[in-house]
Amino acid sequence: MRLIPSKPLSCLGTAVVAVVVGGVVLVGCDVVDLDEVGDFGSLEDIDMELPEGGVIASGDPSPEEEASAYGLPESCAAAGAAEVVGDLAPGPVLAEESGAVEGIDDAEQLTCSFSDGSTEPGTPVFTLVFTSNADPSANPDVVRVPGAEAEMNWEVDVDVDVDTYHNDETDALGGDLEYVGTVDGSSRQLFLSLPGDFYVAAIAFGEDVAREDLERVVMTAAEQVRG
């Protein structure tokens, strides 16, 4: 968890105004003595008009702009899933599922799973998941790999390593990473959370995939669907 240093609240979220009180101009939260700024002339010479619309422009993107930066792709092909996963796919067979996430309002998901086509339990599967409006790392039932034997199930006793972190690449995307891996190495999962309640996950079942490779997959996939 990152702790964001607190800021004084008295100046946050307020419009910038100028008021003359006893020969002193109060500008926002700063005080300017008129005697020290003789070149101003009269008060009428000071431009105190707000920009058109009454909103002060900011260099930071608005929440609406951030939310629209990522969008759920229409298909695995549109997301470039095969190219993103590359050699990490244990087989050429793609199982694709898309639609609403059951039990979560407005949540949608696209799942792209690669395997050799076998339905036997324990068959290696690499899955790339795009989820909108539902955090798959906080909702284990959200992420489902095609095939009943491959569904995530946290009801059983499994020792896992969990690590939440970020790096320069995630900072550039505006996101954070959460890694969840079983101690025995049978499952390795990496979740990338992004602005606008959007998530990209890379999940490897039954095969040894390095965390660095999972990072590459989710980062590349996020760039693919970034508006």
How is this structure best summarized?
With 227 residues, this protein is an alpha+beta fold.
Describe the structure.
- This protein has 227 residues and is an alpha+beta fold.
- The protein folds into 2 domains: 18-55, no CATH class; 70-224.
- It is built from 4 helices and 10 strands, in the order E-E-E-H-H-E-E-E-E-H-E-E-E-H.
- The chain has helices at 63-67, 81-85, 168-173, 211-224, and strands spanning 18-21, 24-27, 30-33, 93-100, 108-115, 125-132, 160-165, 176-182, 187-194, 198-205.
- The chain has a 7-stranded antiparallel sheet. A 3-stranded antiparallel sheet has the order 1-2-3, with no helix packed on it.
- The radius of gyration is 25 Å and the shape is globular.
- The model is unreliable at 1-32 and 146-155 (pLDDT under 50).
Percent of residues in helices:
10-25%
- What is the molecular shape? globular
Number of helices: 4
Q: How much of the residues is beta strand, in percent?
A: 25-35%
Which regions have little confidence, pLDDT < 50, spanning 5+ residues?
Answer: 1-32, 146-155
Please provide the count of β strands: 10
Order of helices and strands: EEEHHEEEEHEEEH
The N- and C-terminal alpha carbons lie at a distance of: 28 Å
Q: What number of domains?
A: 2
Strand order of the largest sheet: 4-5-6-10-9-8-7
Summary tags:
227 residues; alpha+beta; seven-stranded antiparallel beta sheet; 4 helices; 10 strands; 13% helix; globular
Write the topology of this structure.
Blueprint: E1 18-21, E2 24-27, E3 30-33, H1 63-67, H2 81-85, E4 93-100, E5 108-115, E6 125-132, E7 160-165, H3 168-173, E8 176-182, E9 187-194, E10 198-205, H4 211-224
Antiparallel strand pairs: 1-2, 2-3, 4-5, 5-6, 6-10, 7-8, 8-9, 9-10
